[in-house]
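ok so heres the complex, two chains, lmk if somethin looks off
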Amino acid sequence: MSAILEIKDLCASVEGNEILKGISLTINPGEVHAIMGPNGSGKSTLAQVLAGREEYEITSGEVLYKTEDLTDMDPEERAREGIFLAFQYPVEIPGVSNTYFLKAALNAIRKHRGEKEIDAVDFLRLVREKMKLVHMDESLLRRPVNEGFSGGEKKRNEIFHMAVLEPTLGLLDETDSGLDIDALKVVAEGVNVLRQDDRSFVVITHYQRLLNYIVPDFVHVLVDGRIVRSGGKELALELEEKGYSWLEAEVGALATA
Amino acid sequence: MQATAETSSFLTSAREASAQLPDPTGGPLAALRQRGFERFEALGFPTTRMEDWRSTSVAPLAQSSFVAAPRDTKLAPEDIAPHTYAGTCSLVFVDGVFSTELSSQPDVPEGVFAGTLQDALEQRPAEVMKHLGQYARLDEQAFVALGTSHLQDGFCFLIPKGVVVEQALHVLFVSATPGVAAYPRLLIVAGENSQATLVESYVALHEGEGFNGPISEFALDANAVVDHYKIQRENLSTFHIATQQVYQGRSSTLRSHSISIGGRLVRNDANGVLDAEGISCTLNGLYLVDGDQHVDNHMRVDHAKPNCYSHELYKGILDGGGRSVFNGLIHVHPDAQKTDAVQSNRNLLLSSNSLASSNPQLEIFADDVRCTHGSTIGQLDEDAIFYLRSRGIGDAAARSLLTYAFASDIIERIKIDSVREEMEEFLFHRLPHGEIVRQAV
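and the predicted structre for the whole thing:
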């Protein structure tokens, strides 16, 4: 079976500043990859580039999603093809209902797949089921998207959206930041339920803590726009113990060598 | 300012109207028209050298010439059906002339007058003349003077003390003939403890030029509650210059919403005088401009007495080469302690050629008040667009959705379902990918 995502020597910049400096990564179906690294190492940039944020310019390298070139696709096309980004900072959208928006999004994806629009009864059933996954309060459905949600509610809402849209590739951009331990467990459980053989995840995090609950198959450490080390889940524990400085020092030594 | 060649066709028309129109009151109405003519002759059209007209030139209007309404225009009920609102009673004026055939009989409690100004002048002249022309300021305002010189017919709503009119009334002004100038007059007198709801709308059945110069006067006695909606949507060639003058008594409540969505040059002056304690006055609005449309909303609220509340929220959506002007003044007089006034104007620019001008002003002469004002002019939030797109919503649909959400802030305040739904439908049709917006809100 071919890879879901193949990133080859990817370089990307924003406003002329190179942020990603040659990233290569292969993600196979069913795998969970954690990307860790210090602040400013390019973790979020990688997530945004994969989701299609236009402010980031891909200067070289390639990204194949299910063997197709991803770089020419609009963000909405990527979403319809099964890529989902859970935002680090979910955006508040006054005036747009959380539920109806999600229904429109789901129908856009279904239409793209040549499926019929979901009817109101089925949609409600789906939404109720998925809400339970993340222990989300029903009142949040009727509110405008993320408006007035607490930090934890916003993160749960992202996982809830992901659960309804059922992506092939889920990108979680620091979904753990700002969460207390109970909320973290809920979010992690929501992701774990979605794990299956044909669905992959990229979990971006600064801390190892989340990875106690979402146990990754691979851990990659990003420093200064490059993956400087890859390993299994035990690498996360090593980082927890030693911090990032030893890796940053190694990179620094390489750069000056 | 002296009358110039530009004002001459309007002057002639004003002179003739003020001299020739019938006067069922046997003198006072003719005198009011004559005063209107004299003041218009003295004032002439405003120019951009005047502060209140700095950003809006009426020269294209002044240079046009219009004819009086033909009195025999016949329309079929199906011509106006799309412009009526379910659950309301429609009173229809065609080119400014009342149409009995197209109108329904209002279902109102005894003692209420809801009908044409002409009938009101015949049936209850003293009551009408006690209020007509008493609030709108024809001495200073050229368009009030011009409209008053042509004062002939319009809508009159007299609600006696203690009466609640449950049915919403809809006054529909239809422009059926290109090239016509109409000067509709509205008088709403709400007695003590009374309550009523009024919809005032302007449509055109043609794409040609036209001029509507409505003047409305609202007098609310103590504890009266009036909900008012004005929908302006004639066509892209229309001039529409309106004055709404509000006078409120103790603890009365006015909630007025003005929506402007079509016209070559639209100007709304809405003025409120809060001349007793405990008054609540809401003047909200939404305007949409595109192409080379120009919409100007001018507001002035005078807080003359203590403990009054006024609220103004105006939102504008500008596309193409559309232009908008917002000028809101809250004037707090020295006596008006504990005034609570909030004024806000928000503009959304969808095109780089559109231009919004916003000028909120506070003049405060009391020392214990809470007054806030603010204005914003901005574009759609790119983070929000990316967020929506990353969930599978297309770029154009995402922009439409955010634009709709911006407007819905005003539209959702419309309490008459049929009016609100029509505005929603209008946006679904106007915005690209409206069917996705319809699904997502």
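quick notes: The interface with chain A takes residues 381, 383-384, 386-395, 397-398, 401-402, 404-406, 408-409, 436, 439-441 of chain B (CB under 8 Å). thats all i got rn
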